[in-house]
Every structure is written in structure tokens, then in C-alpha cells.
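task queued by scheduler; priority normal; single chain, no ligands, no partner chains; default sampling; output format set to C-alpha cells
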Amino acid sequence: MCAYQTLFHDDNTGYVVKCAECEKIQLGFGNLVMTFARDDFDAFRWWLQKVKNEQRHENSPSLRCIIIPTPCDGMRLLLSARELNDFDKMLEEADSELRSLELLKLFNERS
């Protein structure tokens, strides 16, 4: 049974949690829920940043015109620039919290 640690939570944006038992990372954003292993979370976060950095800022921030590919054939995320920025910020804050927890775990193991 999973025992979740909250890495990020915002009622308007979403959440990122990590299971202390199986170490899977689950994120909820809008009506989307995804579960990742640590390496896959890092890869997804990197991919999202890459897409964000390649965006031109000509469109309305609320226009959903940014397509994020997924590993599932035929399934893509459709986001606005505002949603993409919120999603990226959520993942970055969760990653910072995750790294902090990993450092604390290392120090506790040495004690």
C-alpha cells in the first residue's frame, strides 16, 4: 500500500506526490494523472522544459495550441502557454523538494 509524501500541492494547479514504499511519483495536473519512476519523472520534466523553451510567445497565453507528445501512441497533451508555465513550475518545485528529501535521507543513513 502506498504511503505518499507531498512534493507539491496547489488547489489551482495540481499536485506531485511520492510513495515512500514503491518510490513512484504521481502527478495530477488539471484532469490528468500520471505515475512515473524517478528516471521517467526526470525525463518528462526535461522534455516539458525543452518544449517550453522552444515556444514562440506570439499566441494568447490562454490559447491551447501547445502539443506535448507522450510515450502513448495517439495521446498528446494540449496546453496553453499559461498552463505549460504552471506545469513546468509545479514540476520544478516538486523536483526541488524531492532532491531535498533525498539529501536528508543520505544524511540520516550516515547517522
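post-processing summary
- The CA atoms of residues 7 and 54 lie 27 Å apart.
- The chain is about 40% helix and 30% strand.
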